[in-house]
Amino acid sequence: MDWSQRIAEFVTLWVVIDPLGTLPVFMAVTMGLSAAERRRTACLSVLISFGVLLFFVFGGHWLLQNAGVSINSFQIAGGIVLFLFALSMIHGNHLTDVNPTTDVSPSDIAIYPLAIPSIASPGAMLAAVVLTDDARDNLPSRLATIVIIALVLLATLGILLGAGRLSRLIGRGGASVISRVMGMILAALAVDLVLTAFARWLSLPDI
Predict the structure, then answer these.
(1) What is the pTM of this model?
(2) Alpha carbons within 13 A on the beta-carbon side of 79
(3) What distance in Å separates the CA atoms of residue 125 and residue 115, rounded to the nearest whole number?
(4) What is the pLDDT of residues 120-149, one digit of tens each?
(5) What is the DSSP string of 161-186?
(6) Nearest 5°: CA angle at 111, between 116 and 141?
(7) Fewer CB atoms near the end CB (10 Å): N or C, the chain?
(8) Where are the domains of the chain?
């Protein structure tokens, strides 16, 4: 096994999945849920994310190729989705949708925005395709990449399960402030995704 390649894959997946970056989003959208519901939401979101990334490991290249969708187009679309959600974080709209008086399904929150597009982000999907593109006929190499994806997602789950303590520490007001600040950062990351894709498409220097 090429350990240097596996370490590089781990670093790449850690950056694109960004477990720490998911924490403020998780805290914001689960603010009105009970502790048990938050744990269920965290587990579901990680499990769904693993399923999505597993699909892209084995079928992502085939799907994009047969749909006639370029990687750049896919990244631009993902960046737009991230930007729209970031706007809702900045304006606080998502907070009004998640409160103790409404019937919120943890599975709905786990799917959007946690699993997609926060954990299994466009960048993570693309990384799953790119990292396994040269190993389409090498099953052991693909399995090694899947193990690395699982390790990063387990770390993400551990961070999300610890969010309850942090939420009690900072309170609802602190979570609201963090949500808006992270919304700005998320919006900047979304814009960076779009600009990077356009730069590659137009063969411009790296941004």
Answers:
(1) 0.71
(2) 17
(3) 11
(4) 987 788 888 878 765 556 778 889 999 999
(5) HTHHHHHHHHHHHHHHHHHHHHHHHH
(6) 55
(7) N
(8) 3-201
